[in-house]
């Protein structure tokens, strides 16, 4: 068992909201815009509610405070199959994180370092991700409370200011490409929110199961609410198909903010805040990958995996030749083709886990009757 301290429910909420909401601030959001057309928020609702439902049904299997997702996969399917399933989830998250790093590096280069060699920016970013992972979950939890407050101030202020930029003439057809297409693409793109599975890796760091369960519903509610509002605002400021050609919608939206000739370049404030939140998010994901690697290897020493995982992320981020290729890889390989596989693992774990839980109850899951409870066991009756 990996032991790395405990965090409060508020710290857990902050960590997960940074991981989930933070991804809406980079180029990955274009996937939802591209397939949702003029109704990306509805596509987001279908996909996110789908993955939230799968994870919520798994929560009763995580009452043991000493086991994370990989531990329970091994307990449920055995050492070989459980480790194989755990390694598959690890690989999926590793590839997804490599693409996220690529998106963020491109955004950093465009906003801050346009003439700096991309390999140098990537190397420094990987180092900045690895160092916080060594401090452990308690330090990450406290630090990310500050990052969460910073992120929410920026998001709330950006939403409030963006209302002055909305053009009601841009009001799109409410159902976009139509209900059948939204449902189909929403199910196919449920993997866009695969980071919800990260939540199950953090179970050993929350003492109370009730806090663990209730925190999940708070996270899902806030994430869905702010995600939908953000996509609606983008649609009303940059109507489809204009928004489908913006690689950095968040930065483009901030560039439109104008307070007068004496307060200029306000987008720099949002960009700097985005940078801090981005590295907090990437560090958390690298930390979770280290936990997953240690759990698959059945060792409590997770920190030793961080440098090698950082190296794999570095080379993975170099694979896409362009930003559009990285977005297509995440869209086609990790979501449309990958989610049926690792989503199938989650569903199979759900079915087998509940079946084992039912079979481990006395009388095959049925409560003994009053007569059975009153009658003594024949083997214990003395002659």
Automatic annotation (TrEMBL):
Q: Which GO terms of type biological process are on file?
A: spore germination
Q: Does the keyword Transport apply?
A: yes
The record, for InterPro entries, names: Spore_GerAB
The lineage's top-level taxon is Bacteria
Similarity comment: family membership: Belongs to the amino acid-polyamine-organocation (APC) superfamily. Spore germination protein (SGP) (TC 2.A.3.9) family.
Among the Pfam families in the record, one is Spore_permease
Q: Which residues form a coiled coil?
A: none
Q: List the membrane topology term(s).
A: Multi-pass membrane protein
| Stretches with biased composition (Polar residues) | 363-372
Which keywords annotate this record? Answer: Germination, Membrane, Transmembrane, Transmembrane helix, Transport
| First and last residue of the signal peptide | none
What are the boundaries of the region Disordered?
Answer: 363-383
Tell me the protein's name. Answer: Uncharacterized protein
Transmembrane regions listed in the UniProt entry: 12-36, 42-62, 74-99, 119-137, 144-166, 186-202, 214-238, 268-289, 301-319, 339-355
Where in the cell?
Answer: Membrane
An example Gene Ontology CC term for this record: membrane
Mainly localized where? membrane
């Amino acid at each position: 068992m990996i032991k790395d301290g405990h965090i409060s429910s508020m710290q857990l909420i902050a960590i997960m909201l940074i991981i989930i909401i933070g991804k809406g601030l980079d180029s990955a959001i274009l996937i939802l815009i591209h397939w949702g057309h003029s109704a990306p928020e509805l596509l987001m609702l279908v996909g996110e509610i789908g993955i939230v439902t799968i994870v919520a049904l798994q929560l009763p299997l995580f009452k043991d405070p000493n086991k994370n997702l990989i531990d329970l996969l091994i307990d449920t399917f055995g050492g070989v199959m459980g480790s194989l399933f755990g390694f598959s989830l690890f690989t999926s998250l590793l590839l997804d994180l490599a693409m996220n790093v690529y998106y963020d590096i491109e955004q950093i280069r465009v906003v801050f370092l346009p003439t700096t060699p991309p390999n140098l920016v990537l190397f420094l970013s990987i180092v900045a991700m690895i160092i916080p992972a060594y401090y452990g979950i308690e330090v990450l939890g406290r630090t990310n409370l500050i990052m969460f407050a910073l992120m929410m101030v920026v998001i709330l202020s950006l939403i409030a200011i963006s209302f002055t930029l909305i053009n009601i003439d841009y009001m799109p057809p409410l159902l976009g490409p139509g209900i059948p297409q939204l449902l189909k693409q929403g199910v196919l793109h449920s993997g866009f929110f695969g980071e919800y599975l990260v939540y199950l890796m953090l179970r050993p760091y929350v003492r109370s199961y009730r806090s663990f369960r209730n925190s999940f519903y708070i996270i899902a509610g806030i994430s869905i609410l702010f995600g939908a509002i953000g996509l609606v605002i983008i649609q009303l400021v940059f109507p489809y198909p204009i928004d489908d050609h913006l690689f950095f919608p968040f930065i483009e939206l901030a560039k439109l903010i104008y307070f007068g000739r004496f307060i200029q370049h306000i987008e720099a404030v949002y960009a700097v805040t985005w940078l801090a939140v981005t590295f907090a998010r990437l560090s958390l994901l690298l930390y979770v990958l280290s936990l997953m690697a240690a759990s698959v290897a059945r060792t409590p020493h997770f920190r030793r995996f961080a440098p090698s995982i950082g190296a794999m992320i570095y080379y993975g981020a170099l694979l896409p030749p362009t930003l559009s290729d990285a977005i297509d890889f995440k869209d086609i390989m990790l979501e449309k083709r990958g989610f049926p596989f690792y989503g199938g693992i989650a569903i199979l774990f759900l079915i087998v886990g509940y079946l084992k839980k039912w079979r481990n109850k006395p009388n095959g899951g049925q409560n003994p009757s009053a007569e059975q409870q009153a009658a003594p066991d024949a083997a214990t009756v003395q002659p």
